[in-house]
Amino acid sequence: MKEQAKAAPARPGIEGVRNIVAIASGKGGVGKSTVAVNLAYALKYMGATVGLMDADIYGPSQPGMLGSTAKPVIGDNFLEPVVQHGIKFVSMGQLVPNDGPVVWRAPMATKMIQQFIGGVMWGELDYLLIDLPPGTGDVQLTLAQQASLSGAVIVTTPQDVALGVARKGVRMFNQVNVPIIGVIENMSGFVCKHCGEMTPVFKQGGGKKMAQEFDVPFLGALPLDPDIMRSGEEGKPVVFADSGSPSARAILSVAAEVRRNLNEIAGQMAPDQPQKIEFTEDGRLKILWGDDHTSMHTPYHLRVNCGCAQCVDEDSGVRTLDKNRVPLDISIKDVHPVGRYGLSIQFSDGHGTGIYTYGRLLALDEAGSQAQSFDV
After folding, report:
1. What is the pLDDT of residues 274-293, one digit of tens each?
2. Backbone angles phi, psi at 141, to 5 degrees
3. Alpha-carbon distance 297 to 289, whole Å?
4. Residue 14 — pLDDT band, cuts 50, 70, 90?
5. In angstroms, rounded to a whole number, what is the distance separating the alpha carbons of residues 299 and 296?
6. Global model pTM greater than 0.90
7. Burial 184-220 (b: 16+ CB within 10 A, else e)
8. Residue 223, helix vs strand vs coil
9. What is the pairing mode between strands 332-338 and 17-24?
10. Are strands 78-80 and 73-75 parallel, antiparallel or unpaired?
């Protein structure tokens, strides 16, 4: 029998990090980075160990918001994060001298994100928050594929234009099977410090309405408060500066919701998420799913049904792979998860560019309804 590769765990993550949370927004200017740094400190204030990855390669802001000019220690193929206010963090802003621009094409930015994922000595963390750039591009996809995100928080403001773009972010995470932890409505209204009256400067309720539209949790509303802006300018998260202020209380309330929802997500196993992946003695791929159904896949069947651009014409959808050229005795040499939504499979013929989504694997199930038990 041919030597078979060992199947990787179903859900790998950054070693020692219990929860990896993306802080995302559809567009810029909604205060996502401000929310990320304040949420990180709020979780730390509540007793957790927290890291913060500034993944906005072209517009990093976390060094300023944390009030740190320190540089990470750079070793052989690793970075040691800076610790500020008890939070470990890395940012492109620490690596570029004198606030210089990052004039990179997307592949270089993606490579740096890969370094932040696999080359930073995060150590043991309860939460690693990732401050994403706005939009739904290469950086977001790289993180979804390689960081095994526990979930995503969507930050928006109440205006229709911000909500419209934020919806795209929700749909993107749905496509890559990343749970939505919830929606935060930032700059929800101005609270008068003298009378306590809330004035909806832009409008109110849009974030909650969007959460209801997608049937995801609404984490809360954060006020439009000069103290939050000032804390960012001074490099001190608002909870650090004054934990009793109305803004700090609002942020702590949102952080508690994030923690609670993450615990609920961790306790659930979706039907289309694998519990276990292994090989049978004859080289078939065997997957136990969240609903306890088992699917079986021969290497040949998987190879001839690859949907990558080398095997299927992207414009017409017509299969270009000649299955007669695929060896009948082809085997699987390596398999590893891609984020939370699929598997990357390396075959003995050298092919390995396709991503088999979990939905695709369920559709290609050769076992049908005949579930087979796993060896204990």
Report:
1. 889 999 999 999 999 988 88
2. -65, -40
3. 13
4. confident
5. 10
6. no
7. bbbbbbbbeeeeeeeeeebebebbbebbeeeebbbbb
8. coil
9. unpaired
10. antiparallel
